[in-house]
Amino acid sequence: MDDMNKNSKIYVAGHTGLVGSAIVRCLQNNGYNNLIFRDIKDLDLRRQQEVEVFFTQEQPEYVFLSAAKVGGILANNTYPAQFIYDNLMIAANIIHSAYLSKVKKLLFLGSSCIYPKMAAQPIKEEYLLTGSLEPTNEAYAIAKITGLELCKFYRREYDCDFISAMPTNLYGINDNFDLETSHVLPALIRKFHEAKINEKEEVVLWGTGTPKREFLYVDDLADALLFLMQHYAGEEPVNIGTGEDVAIGELAYIIKEITGFTGNIVYDTTKPDGTPRKWLDVTKIHNLGWKHKTELTEGIGKVYEWYQNL
Ligand code: GFB
After folding, report:
1. Which listed residue, of 9, 44, 197, 251, carries a Cα 20 to 30 Å from 102's Cα?
2. Which residues lie closer than 8 Å to 5 by C-beta, 6 or more apart?
3. Cα angle 230, 37, 113; round to 5
4. How many alpha carbons fall within 13 Å on the CB side of residue 158?
5. Which atom, in ligand 1's list, is nearest to the CA of 248?
6. What is the 8-class DSSP label of residue 7?
7. Residue ranges, the chain, pLDDT below 50
8. Are 195 and 263 in contact (CB under 8 A)?
9. 208: CA distance to ligand 1 center in Å?
10. Pocket-testing residue among 111, 148, 184, 185, ligand 1, by greatest number of atoms within 8 A of Cβ
11. How far apart are CA 188 and CA 194, in angstroms?
12. In contact, 115 and 128? CB cutoff 8 Å
């Protein structure tokens, strides 16, 4: 379906982030030797003119659009204007420049959190835009939905081979461990680890611990994105996940065990729970021939080992 080969010129937007750095690892491990990327100091993806000049000069053939302003529930709830503006500009600039410079194929990343808050579970791709969004990350969701719709309409009007993926919550090495802006899994690794080495009595979790989340190891995601770039060319986004979710309280015990913390877990219910559940239906990507490899406990173990050697 697609002739991306080892010498194809591939641009990974957002190459230093959790997802982008995993995509670079995956491509390099699979022998793709013609990768290009730019640091934000050399290319601000929110500036349309800079992006157009970059695409004209570099003429990438394939684009993995993993650049975004991302964060956990507190960051999204605190900085909505930054989340909607940055993500809108990044998506619009890269997708339009990819069209202008005739990029052969582009993959855009959505997220499971942009589905309706109360979508039926497990969530199917067609549930997008069928209900109101989770308020804590509505700004991010609107920007990401716009990116998905740009890919869909550029395919319809200009016949661009632009596809979209909808990853579930991700974790892995090179994640963000800042306790204010990170996602739950890296935050808990850091909290339990620091509580153990500092011999603290308790670890404080946000919310009630009852929401459920599905977690995919980021190197499995990168493998899925390479698979889709090679085997999928459709208008509809494709969910990428493990097909299993876990309550935050359960996740806490898994991480408590792995880090060896022996104190108590308490909940700060002044912090938001967010969406009660966002469990993805992964039938479509399974039918295409891809399945995740890394189970949750194994993946957390790998991240904790990496984290301890930071
Ligand atoms: O991972 P998280 O920040 O984002 O929170 P979402 C998941 C759940 O974990 C929420 C709880 O119910 C949090 O209240 N939680 C418990 C914690 N303790 C902590 C903690 O110490 N830190 C954090 N961060 N959470 C995000 C969206 O939603 O999902 C983003 O806001 C993004 O836009 C991401 O799409 C994938 O899973 O709730």
Report:
1. 44
2. none
3. 65
4. 19
5. 9
6. T
7. 1
8. yes
9. 12
10. 184
11. 10
12. yes
